[in-house]
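Milestone M4 deliverable, item 7.
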Amino acid sequence: MNSTIELLANKGQGTIRLDLEYQPGIALLTIDNPKRHNALSGKMMVEFYHAITQLERNVSNDLVALIAIGGGAPKSSFCAGLDLTFAREFIKSPEESLAINELMHDAIDRLTKLPFITVAVVTGGAIGGGSELVTGFDFICMSRQSGFVHFVQTRMGLSSPWGGLRRLVGLVGRKRALIWMAGGSVVRAEDGSKEGLVDVVVERDEDCLNAAVSFLQPFLFDERTQAKVSSHAVRGMKKLLIRQDKENDWEYEKRVFSSTAFSKF
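Output delivered:
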Protein backbone atom coordinates (compact mmCIF):
# COMPACT_ATOMS: atom_id res chain seq x y z
CA MET A 1 0.00 0.00 0.00
CA ASN A 2 2.89 2.38 0.68
CA SER A 3 4.01 2.33 -2.96
CA THR A 4 0.47 3.26 -4.06
CA ILE A 5 0.39 6.12 -1.55
CA GLU A 6 3.71 7.37 -2.90
CA LEU A 7 2.39 7.09 -6.46
CA LEU A 8 -0.73 9.12 -5.74
CA ALA A 9 0.50 11.66 -3.20
CA ASN A 10 0.11 15.24 -4.45
CA LYS A 11 -1.37 14.09 -7.78
CA GLY A 12 -4.35 16.16 -8.85
CA GLN A 13 -6.40 18.79 -7.04
CA GLY A 14 -8.90 18.94 -4.20
CA THR A 15 -8.57 17.86 -0.60
CA ILE A 16 -10.15 15.79 2.17
CA ARG A 17 -10.77 17.71 5.38
CA LEU A 18 -11.44 16.02 8.72
CA ASP A 19 -12.76 18.02 11.68
CA LEU A 20 -12.73 15.79 14.76
CA GLU A 21 -14.47 18.49 16.83
CA TYR A 22 -17.25 19.56 14.47
CA GLN A 23 -19.80 19.15 17.24
CA PRO A 24 -19.63 17.35 20.61
CA GLY A 25 -19.27 13.66 19.77
CA ILE A 26 -19.46 14.26 16.00
CA ALA A 27 -16.64 14.49 13.44
CA LEU A 28 -17.12 15.96 9.96
CA LEU A 29 -15.34 14.71 6.83
CA THR A 30 -15.53 16.94 3.75
CA ILE A 31 -14.81 15.68 0.22
CA ASP A 32 -13.64 19.00 -1.18
CA ASN A 33 -13.21 19.31 -4.94
CA PRO A 34 -16.36 21.20 -5.97
CA LYS A 35 -15.05 22.39 -9.34
CA ARG A 36 -15.06 18.72 -10.38
CA HIS A 37 -18.24 17.73 -8.52
CA ASN A 38 -16.08 16.47 -5.62
CA ALA A 39 -14.50 13.73 -7.71
CA LEU A 40 -11.50 12.06 -6.08
CA SER A 41 -8.01 12.87 -7.32
CA GLY A 42 -4.94 10.88 -6.33
CA LYS A 43 -4.04 13.17 -3.46
CA MET A 44 -7.62 13.07 -2.20
CA MET A 45 -7.66 9.26 -2.16
CA VAL A 46 -4.46 9.28 -0.11
CA GLU A 47 -5.92 11.90 2.23
CA PHE A 48 -9.11 9.87 2.58
CA TYR A 49 -7.03 6.78 3.43
CA HIS A 50 -5.13 8.77 6.07
CA ALA A 51 -8.37 10.27 7.44
CA ILE A 52 -9.71 6.78 8.08
CA THR A 53 -6.46 5.92 9.86
CA GLN A 54 -6.82 9.05 12.00
CA LEU A 55 -10.38 8.09 12.91
CA GLU A 56 -9.27 4.57 13.83
CA ARG A 57 -6.85 6.12 16.32
CA ASN A 58 -9.49 8.33 17.97
CA VAL A 59 -11.55 5.67 19.70
CA SER A 60 -10.42 6.60 23.21
CA ASN A 61 -12.19 10.00 23.38
CA ASP A 62 -15.90 10.91 23.30
CA LEU A 63 -16.27 10.62 19.52
CA VAL A 64 -19.44 8.73 18.63
CA ALA A 65 -20.33 9.69 15.05
CA LEU A 66 -18.97 10.75 11.68
CA ILE A 67 -20.78 12.81 9.04
CA ALA A 68 -19.45 13.06 5.46
CA ILE A 69 -20.43 15.83 3.03
CA GLY A 70 -19.32 17.12 -0.34
CA GLY A 71 -17.34 20.35 -0.49
CA GLY A 72 -19.41 23.34 -1.51
CA ALA A 73 -22.52 21.70 -0.09
CA PRO A 74 -25.39 22.19 -0.43
CA LYS A 75 -24.64 23.51 -3.93
CA SER A 76 -22.35 20.71 -5.11
CA SER A 77 -22.30 16.92 -5.45
CA PHE A 78 -21.52 14.49 -2.66
CA CYS A 79 -18.86 12.72 -4.75
CA ALA A 80 -18.56 12.05 -8.49
CA GLY A 81 -16.20 9.10 -8.07
CA LEU A 82 -12.76 9.08 -9.67
CA ASP A 83 -11.53 12.39 -11.06
CA LEU A 84 -11.24 11.50 -14.73
CA THR A 85 -8.91 14.41 -15.46
CA PHE A 86 -6.51 13.02 -12.88
CA ALA A 87 -6.98 9.51 -14.24
CA ARG A 88 -6.19 10.48 -17.84
CA GLU A 89 -3.04 12.29 -16.75
CA PHE A 90 -1.60 9.93 -14.17
CA ILE A 91 -2.99 6.39 -14.55
CA LYS A 92 -0.88 4.77 -17.26
CA SER A 93 -1.33 1.02 -16.78
CA PRO A 94 -3.76 -1.65 -15.57
CA GLU A 95 -1.44 -2.25 -12.62
CA GLU A 96 -1.74 1.36 -11.49
CA SER A 97 -5.53 1.23 -11.86
CA LEU A 98 -5.70 -1.90 -9.71
CA ALA A 99 -3.43 -0.34 -7.10
CA ILE A 100 -5.74 2.69 -6.84
CA ASN A 101 -8.78 0.44 -6.54
CA GLU A 102 -7.11 -1.62 -3.83
CA LEU A 103 -6.35 1.55 -1.86
CA MET A 104 -9.97 2.75 -2.02
CA HIS A 105 -11.38 -0.75 -1.48
CA ASP A 106 -9.31 -1.01 1.70
CA ALA A 107 -10.14 2.50 2.91
CA ILE A 108 -13.90 2.08 2.44
CA ASP A 109 -13.81 -1.37 4.03
CA ARG A 110 -12.09 0.20 7.05
CA LEU A 111 -14.70 2.98 7.02
CA THR A 112 -17.40 0.33 7.47
CA LYS A 113 -15.48 -1.07 10.44
CA LEU A 114 -15.09 2.22 12.32
CA PRO A 115 -16.69 1.98 15.78
CA PHE A 116 -18.74 5.10 15.07
CA ILE A 117 -22.20 5.81 13.68
CA THR A 118 -21.51 7.10 10.16
CA VAL A 119 -23.82 9.23 8.00
CA ALA A 120 -23.38 10.37 4.39
CA VAL A 121 -25.11 13.66 3.54
CA VAL A 122 -26.08 13.42 -0.13
CA THR A 123 -26.93 16.65 -1.89
CA GLY A 124 -26.27 16.51 -5.61
CA GLY A 125 -24.92 13.24 -6.92
CA ALA A 126 -23.10 10.21 -5.57
CA ILE A 127 -21.93 8.93 -8.93
CA GLY A 128 -19.82 5.91 -9.96
CA GLY A 129 -17.12 5.63 -7.33
CA GLY A 130 -19.24 8.01 -5.23
CA SER A 131 -22.02 5.41 -5.30
CA GLU A 132 -19.49 2.83 -4.11
CA LEU A 133 -18.37 5.16 -1.32
CA VAL A 134 -21.86 6.02 -0.10
CA THR A 135 -22.64 2.34 0.55
CA GLY A 136 -19.85 2.35 3.13
CA PHE A 137 -21.84 4.50 5.57
CA ASP A 138 -24.29 3.24 8.16
CA PHE A 139 -26.94 5.77 7.16
CA ILE A 140 -27.68 8.13 4.28
CA CYS A 141 -29.42 11.49 4.56
CA MET A 142 -30.54 12.70 1.14
CA SER A 143 -32.14 15.86 -0.18
CA ARG A 144 -35.23 15.42 -2.32
CA GLN A 145 -34.28 18.66 -4.07
CA SER A 146 -31.07 17.43 -5.74
CA GLY A 147 -29.82 14.22 -4.15
CA PHE A 148 -29.34 11.04 -6.15
CA VAL A 149 -27.12 7.98 -6.46
CA HIS A 150 -26.10 6.98 -9.99
CA PHE A 151 -24.62 3.53 -10.50
CA VAL A 152 -22.77 4.23 -13.78
CA GLN A 153 -20.21 1.44 -13.46
CA THR A 154 -21.48 -0.88 -16.21
CA ARG A 155 -22.00 2.12 -18.51
CA MET A 156 -18.26 2.72 -18.23
CA GLY A 157 -17.47 -0.94 -18.90
CA LEU A 158 -16.63 -1.72 -15.28
CA SER A 159 -17.74 -3.99 -12.47
CA SER A 160 -17.88 -2.75 -8.88
CA PRO A 161 -14.30 -1.65 -8.08
CA TRP A 162 -14.54 -0.53 -4.45
CA GLY A 163 -16.79 -3.21 -2.90
CA GLY A 164 -20.04 -1.32 -3.45
CA LEU A 165 -22.11 -4.19 -4.83
CA ARG A 166 -21.28 -6.46 -1.89
CA ARG A 167 -22.35 -3.75 0.56
CA LEU A 168 -25.42 -2.80 -1.47
CA VAL A 169 -26.74 -6.38 -1.26
CA GLY A 170 -26.73 -6.01 2.51
CA LEU A 171 -28.68 -2.76 2.25
CA VAL A 172 -31.36 -3.52 -0.36
CA GLY A 173 -31.11 -7.26 -1.12
CA ARG A 174 -29.70 -9.27 -4.03
CA LYS A 175 -32.30 -8.52 -6.69
CA ARG A 176 -32.52 -4.78 -6.11
CA ALA A 177 -28.74 -4.47 -5.87
CA LEU A 178 -28.30 -6.26 -9.19
CA ILE A 179 -30.99 -4.18 -10.91
CA TRP A 180 -29.48 -0.94 -9.68
CA MET A 181 -25.79 -1.74 -10.15
CA ALA A 182 -25.84 -3.75 -13.38
CA GLY A 183 -28.73 -1.72 -14.81
CA GLY A 184 -27.05 1.66 -14.33
CA SER A 185 -29.90 3.05 -12.24
CA VAL A 186 -30.34 6.58 -10.96
CA VAL A 187 -31.81 6.33 -7.46
CA ARG A 188 -33.41 9.43 -5.98
CA ALA A 189 -34.47 10.07 -2.42
CA GLU A 190 -37.99 8.65 -2.66
CA ASP A 191 -37.01 5.31 -4.21
CA GLY A 192 -33.88 5.09 -2.05
CA SER A 193 -36.00 5.49 1.07
CA LYS A 194 -38.57 2.96 -0.13
CA GLU A 195 -35.92 0.30 -0.83
CA GLY A 196 -33.85 0.83 2.34
CA LEU A 197 -30.85 2.70 0.95
CA VAL A 198 -31.79 6.16 2.23
CA ASP A 199 -32.68 6.68 5.88
CA VAL A 200 -33.46 10.40 6.17
CA VAL A 201 -35.13 12.44 3.43
CA VAL A 202 -35.33 16.24 3.56
CA GLU A 203 -36.95 18.60 1.09
CA ARG A 204 -34.20 21.17 0.67
CA ASP A 205 -30.44 20.83 0.19
CA GLU A 206 -29.64 23.38 2.88
CA ASP A 207 -31.47 21.32 5.52
CA CYS A 208 -29.61 18.08 4.88
CA LEU A 209 -26.60 18.55 7.17
CA ASN A 210 -28.72 19.75 10.10
CA ALA A 211 -31.04 16.79 9.57
CA ALA A 212 -28.08 14.43 9.81
CA VAL A 213 -26.99 16.07 13.07
CA SER A 214 -30.54 15.73 14.45
CA PHE A 215 -30.67 12.09 13.38
CA LEU A 216 -27.55 11.40 15.45
CA GLN A 217 -28.87 12.92 18.67
CA PRO A 218 -30.28 9.64 20.15
CA PHE A 219 -26.75 8.19 19.92
CA LEU A 220 -25.46 11.14 21.94
CA PHE A 221 -28.18 12.06 24.44
CA ASP A 222 -31.05 10.24 26.14
CA GLU A 223 -34.27 11.63 24.69
CA ARG A 224 -36.10 11.56 28.05
CA THR A 225 -33.46 12.85 30.47
CA GLN A 226 -31.09 14.57 28.01
CA ALA A 227 -28.25 12.84 29.85
CA LYS A 228 -25.19 12.10 27.78
CA VAL A 229 -25.13 8.53 26.44
CA SER A 230 -21.97 6.52 27.08
CA SER A 231 -19.74 6.80 24.02
CA HIS A 232 -18.17 3.47 24.99
CA ALA A 233 -21.59 1.78 24.93
CA VAL A 234 -22.53 3.18 21.50
CA ARG A 235 -19.15 2.26 20.04
CA GLY A 236 -19.50 -1.18 21.63
CA MET A 237 -22.81 -1.71 19.83
CA LYS A 238 -21.22 -0.75 16.52
CA LYS A 239 -18.35 -3.19 17.14
CA LEU A 240 -20.83 -6.00 17.71
CA LEU A 241 -22.60 -5.09 14.47
CA ILE A 242 -19.33 -5.14 12.54
CA ARG A 243 -18.76 -8.74 13.64
CA GLN A 244 -21.83 -9.74 11.60
CA ASP A 245 -20.51 -8.31 8.33
CA LYS A 246 -18.96 -10.33 5.52
CA GLU A 247 -15.21 -10.32 5.20
CA ASN A 248 -13.34 -8.17 2.70
CA ASP A 249 -13.35 -9.94 -0.68
CA TRP A 250 -10.83 -7.78 -2.52
CA GLU A 251 -8.91 -10.55 -4.30
CA TYR A 252 -12.00 -11.94 -6.04
CA GLU A 253 -13.43 -8.51 -6.82
CA LYS A 254 -10.04 -7.53 -8.29
CA ARG A 255 -10.16 -10.48 -10.70
CA VAL A 256 -13.68 -9.59 -11.84
CA PHE A 257 -12.77 -5.92 -12.27
CA SER A 258 -9.69 -6.85 -14.30
CA SER A 259 -11.76 -9.06 -16.61
CA THR A 260 -14.04 -6.13 -17.40
CA ALA A 261 -11.95 -2.97 -17.25
CA PHE A 262 -8.91 -4.39 -19.01
CA SER A 263 -10.63 -6.57 -21.60
CA LYS A 264 -9.64 -4.06 -24.29
CA PHE A 265 -5.91 -4.28 -23.45
